Amino acid sequence: MRSTIAASLAMVLAATPAMAQLALPGAGDTLGQVNSRLDGLLEQGVNTTRKAVDGLTSARIDRLAELVRNNRQAIEFDAENQPARRGELLLEGADSAAIARAEQAGFVVIAREDFQDLGLAVVRLAVPPGAALAQAEKRLRKVLPGVTISSDQLYFASGNVAAGSMAAAPSVPGGTAASTMPVRIGVIDGAPGPSAQVAATQGFARGAPLASNHGSAVVSLLLHAGARDIAVADVYGNDPAGGNAFAIVRALGWLLTRKVRVVSISLVGPRNAVLAKAISAVQGRGMVVVAAVGNDGPAAPPSYPASYPGVIAVTAVDGRNRALIEAGRALHLDYAAPGADMLAANAAGQWKAVRGTSFATPLVAARAARAVADRGAKWLLALDGEARDLGRKGPDPVFGRGLVCGSCRRTK
To answer: What is the separation of C-alpha 300 from the centre of its chain, rounded to a whole number of angstroms?
Structure first.
């Protein structure tokens, strides 16, 4: 499936990390063509090769470099060579003496925020004037050994919504009345369009809430799967550095105050020490976190937040229940769900072709919410009971513990 497929996948994947921020053209227009091409190659039995896996990895590196190059005023690479908000670092749990030492070293406090429900206190620091983020981060770690320090790394949508024409379908269901699932579900993404009525939407980025095709698609799939009480945290807006770790932490804190029981996160990025603490905190308060493994291929670095302990990591299958070749990986894998050969609603309320692990994630989140509503603390056993074993017998690194919500795919 590989070297030839890699070229085709580039059309799908080229915009993936940046689409919510840069709206790079081209990927959506070719989505249907790519699906057909992949199907044809798979039918021909084309052998997988390492070359294509390397191609996916190279495409990811190129996309991140382009993202930073096109947004130099807002984004730069950190000490781990990951895109992050330019000129800012995050401290968690630093006492006044530690903050004073940072200030003596030339760092400036931008803001302090206590997340009482999360048990976290985060300080945003501006790096010294003229200092590169990567070098400033290394310097601060020497100044404050033992303190939790991270850059404000970026997280990216893990799927694409097709452009082009398609007849509009009826508006997706919405509203807060007559819920078929008495558990509130949270979404961390872009905001949905007006046709997808949700219980609450809150912005955590410049210009947010701002309707996006990706966020709309995720919400429409939740609604299609029976969810009604949905709270959406928009971490993108129109901010070039949207989708950052601090925005996601703030979103998690807000969702906790909204009594969200299950949160769907179709975003991927690197391990981040501050975000890891926030994820652990909401889990400790009973929130189930469901996250996508991304679309950068099996050779990509493990995706987060899917790789954090206890997070439900989700991959995707096509219309024939074959694992998507571009599906990424996490340190563990829990379930697969439909993520291609299906439709979801864009910001205008039109049902369009979608592809990616992004769109499998809300389906699993919806089923997890149903399991929480029906079985309480034994929700995971209920979800395992629903999962249909695919691939080799038993749990495996391709499909996890099986296919969930297999009948949830909308094709017309």
So the answer is: 15
